[in-house]
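One record is given unchanged without comment:
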Amino acid sequence: MEDNEAIEIVGAERFSNYTGYASSFRFSGDYVDKRDVDSFGRRRTRIVAIDALCNAGMGQYELKYLLRETNKAFCGFLDQSKCDHKRLFRDGGLKGSQCIQADRDDDMDEAPPRLLWCEDPENKIGIATGNWGCGAFGGDPEIKTIVQWLAASQALRPSVSYYTCGLKSLQNLNQLSQWISLHGWTVGDLWNMLVEYSSQRFNRETNLGFFAWLLPSLFSQEAT
């Protein structure tokens, strides 16, 4: 795919349970998909495929690659059929979608909908995602989390259900997202901080993760 392309699969139906990931991926029994269907008889599901940077190393902190990843996620999260460009790029800046950390044991199909803040109450379709571009791809989980939150917010998605898969570096995601939301930060505010941090990280001026760099007082208390 090009950097401004995404693939959307509409109406996907699940037939199997599974365990593992990649080489450990295994079939573990039948699954009956009980999701509602639309007027065409398709399940009301959408799966988005977006390709992340692979093994970018320290390069992932360069501005051009931050932009690449944020734009790629935005392309995947934007609902083109309901796109209102005036709202997407209004001068005041958008507030963020509610970022929710899901426990690593949660089943993405069984987790209840949790919509705590909504930019558009008429369009309550959020994003369910996880550690995109991390693992074998070598992405920084804290950066990728924020990139996806920014993209979902700019795309006017009302919520993000984030599945951390138990990563220790993301254990304070709820606290971070709540602090940012309570202080009324816009997408632009958070983006500017991400750019500043990434510049320092790329130039080896800091070795802290983004969460601890952004809120040192909060995370120093957690460490004690």
In short: Residues 50-223 form one domain.
